[in-house]
Amino acid sequence: MRRSRVTSFDVAEAAGVSQSTVSRALAGSPSITEETRSRVEAAAAALGYHVDARAARLRSGRTGTMAIVVVGRAGSDPTRVSGFHYALLGSTCAAAAECGYQSLVAFQSDPGEFAWNYVAQGQADGLVVMGTSVNRAAWNDLLATAPQGPVAVWGAPFDDERWVRAENREGAVLAVERLIAAGHKRIGFLGTVDAEHPQFAERYEGYREALVRHGLPVGEPLAVVGDDRVAAGREAVAAMLGAPDPPDAIFAANDAIALGALEALGRTGARVPEEFGVVGFDGLAAGVHSHPPLTTIEPDFAEAGRALVSRICYPDVEPTRRVPVRLIERGSVRPVR
Amino acid sequence: MRRSRVTSFDVAEAAGVSQSTVSRALAGSPSITEETRSRVEAAAAALGYHVDARAARLRSGRTGTMAIVVVGRAGSDPTRVSGFHYALLGSTCAAAAECGYQSLVAFQSDPGEFAWNYVAQGQADGLVVMGTSVNRAAWNDLLATAPQGPVAVWGAPFDDERWVRAENREGAVLAVERLIAAGHKRIGFLGTVDAEHPQFAERYEGYREALVRHGLPVGEPLAVVGDDRVAAGREAVAAMLGAPDPPDAIFAANDAIALGALEALGRTGARVPEEFGVVGFDGLAAGVHSHPPLTTIEPDFAEAGRALVSRICYPDVEPTRRVPVRLIERGSVRPVR
DNA sequence: ATGAAAGCGCTAACAG
DNA sequence: CTGTTAGCGCTTTCAT
User: Fold this and answer.
1) A238 vs B: CB within 8 A
2) What fold does the segment set A65-163 form as a domain?
3) CATH of domain B166-300+318-328
4) Which pLDDT belongs to residue A229?
5) CA spacing 20 to 30 A to A92: which of A28, A129, B71, B209?
6) φ, ψ for residue A94 (rounded to 5)?
7) CATH number of the domain located at residue range(s) B8-51 in this protein
């Protein structure tokens, strides 16, 4: 006859204390003698006891869990989520663990699977949403639902008080100054700049700022069309090179676009980095193996995870909204002379 | 004065039914009139009521949650988890959602953070573990802990009854036959084959089988050393090319090794794919942007996720252990003449 | 520093 | 088909 679940009462009996003492001892309450605590811990270990999270959560009202939603492109499966968002997801889970939180993760891309009310359902204490800005339906649904509890957002195509972002402007300045240092004079910007792409707009701002500061011509942003950024980058580069007075370097609004650009450049026979420079943004792992390897601006992922998570773990402290970035030298810009 | 949480009693009162009817109606019990159900649903919506998962879980004993642990390399952060495991993680979360399960995910790489007893703690109904086989400490810890509840495993360096794997042998046959079709005669195998690498051993088996079948010479597996597979692949290829009678094509045990090999090959000036063929295994996204793009064997990720998850959702049905694979033609093998 | 008692909000067994 | 009732196992007052 199999005994039912070991409860804190069983441990209490074995340790010769009350059930509430067991609870306190195992929860690390300071008002428990070290001696009592170790007796309780020994009894718990002997019986193979584990606090039942279901009961603890019901009673305390907290869940110790963070809901993390990764928004993908409409109609696509999680396999095709960008490496950037995977890295950010990983860092966010790690940051949550640092705060003693678990991570409930959901990949959502299509209407019908959108769900944000994890807090209302008692599944989590807060919500982190990250993903591609191109999925308007998802972001609109998030806006319309107005989930309760603390929320932190990365990648939304709108400005509100909940976002966390990379230092996009500063990163763009780094990128462009690197190209300038390599001797490039006509530097183009690859990326759509409009209200739907606030991150790209910030990067364009930094691009402009750096060029103006150095007295170099500022190009119009060359819009990339389509949700497939790589393909978009490929096509945009073709358009750019076909125009009169083409650039001799480009700063791409992100690595996916830059990777597409690199491909197209390779096909036209442009010599990168000897004659043509390329810098991306995001720190994509795929850029390590591209030809040539992609020089890029990488946000500090660990800090990004912490910034997102701290809005939920520490809702009362002033939130960090900007995450520092750094230049990763790989091989798509020639060495500084 | 803020009212406390809306409960099923409030909904019951508003709908003029008993509390248990509310519970049944919202849980989709078939023994509820459609008329009653819609009245309850209307009341619930009007009050903004959501079933409290904490209470439901305590009472029912189930959690509707799957714990997914991603094992990384010792001392590394989640940012450096392989793209393969990210894709598998995504597919597993998606498969869990298909079964109506939530996914609690944890990245673990170092002793001190290992935790497998999610079921004992009432956090999940089962456990999926995936990750790199090189982290012996983690896998040993898993073995030693023997967590309760259903468990499914991908990537462990040992054989037991819980693993799920790709059709490694069949995939290797596909890879090697593709190289043979391209006219290659001396095909090498890049990867360590020993008890710690059961997946590589299976791939070597398929490699051997295909070559024997076609009457071609079977090479010894060329061990790759170090946990960084890319670097290992780079070095192994150098060794292979330095040996007498070097191969004119290689099948790498996985894409990371193949990517390293491609790099080293490029540096030595070998012309891939015109004179030298390379095929990898895993379907890594980074292989899309390598030079040349990497031809590879890709497991069906969606099926992999389902196979893992079904061990937890449907513990009574005969589990699927093998996941089908397919050849992804990219560009590292020349066209069939 | 510890014990006694209450009750979190729900599901499920049992009636009717 | 619906109502009544009894807990699930814990955390947290309130005592002592």
Assistant:
1) no
2) Rossmann fold (3.40.50)
3) 3.40.50.2300
4) 86
5) A28
6) -65, -45
7) 1.10.260.40
